[in-house]
Write a structure and sequence with these properties.
The chain is α/β, with parallel strands linked by helices. It is 29% helix and 15% strand. The chain contains 7 helices and 9 strands. Helix 1 crosses helix 2. The longest helix is centred in the middle third of the chain and has 14 residues. It is globular, with a radius of gyration of 17 Å. It binds 2-amino-2-deoxy-6-O-phosphono-alpha-D-glucopyranose (GLP).
């Protein structure tokens, strides 16, 4: 899955002069980042003209906290490649005025032009970014309260469930849908039901990823375990 995703994404980026790439975090894209780093080290690609926007960030975690998404991106991707620091964008979860931060993030995305390609993962409850079930399809970058199941799923990265932040900033569903292209990565047995529901179910705000069915250019790259519930 990661290798396919890497080749797919690099082909797309190479065809665009100043590409804008939307990035996600979590366990799913870790392999993708490893392959992207490898491609850079083998001099198959340069990211000097690339601008990136991450989907989300926890609120109230210091940037350099080992579980902040800022830290995740530095550790798993940015520090190994030539993406200019000023071109790496994540929401600031420590902003004093969170509402203004959300608007500023939207503005930055608009100023960059549209996101050419947004990489997504999916939560077991169908969330994309941190847009939990029930989020309006019209939503833009906003503050969210995380579902218990999302906090539980992400607790593996923290010392205990109590330490998982309860809030985050996330790109909204409308923001995500405005990307010119979307690539959804799905891996592992735990995501099999979500993938089945995505492919077979209705477009429904109770299952945020379902909106991707009406995106004009969305691709799913999944591994065999994630596909196990589909005939
Ligand atoms: C996380 C992130 C999402 C991610 C999803 C799946 O909480 N906010 O951007 O795509 O949930 O995470 P994982 O890949 O670890 O299963």
């Amino acid at each position: 899955m990661s290798h396919t995703a890497c080749s797919y994404i690099l082909d797309k980026l190479k065809a665009i002069e100043n590409p804008v790439l939307g990035l996600s975090t979590g366990a799913t894209p870790e392999g993708l980042y490893r392959y992207l780093i490898q491609s850079y080290q083998e001099k198959k690609v340069s990211f000097q003209n690339l601008k990136t926007f991450n989907l989300d960030e926890y609120i109230n975690l210091d940037k350099n906290h080992p579980n902040s998404y800022f830290h995740y991106m530095q550790k798993r991707f940015f520090q190994y490649v030539d993406i200019l620091e000023e071109n790496q964008n994540l929401p600031n979860g420590k902003a004093e005025n969170l509402k203004a931060e959300c608007q500023a993030y939207e503005d930055k995305i608009s100023q960059a032009g549209k996101i050419d390609l947004q990489v997504l993962g999916i939560g077991v409850n169908g969330h994309i970014g941190f847009n939990e079930p029930g989020t309006a399809f019209t939503s833009r970058t906003h503050v969210v309260t995380l579902d218990d199941c999302t906090r539980t799923a992400n607790a593996k990265y923290f010392a205990s469930l109590n330490e998982v932040p309860s809030k985050a900033i996330t790109m909204g569903i409308k923001t995500i849908m405005e990307s010119k292209e979307i690539v959804l990565l799905v891996t592992g047995r735990k995501k099999a039901s979500a993938l089945k529901r995505l492919l077979n179910g209705e477009v429904d705000e109770e299952f945020p990823a379902s909106i991707l069915k009406i995106h004009p250019n969305a691709t799913i790259i999944a591994d065999e375990k994630a596909l196990i519930e589909l005939s």
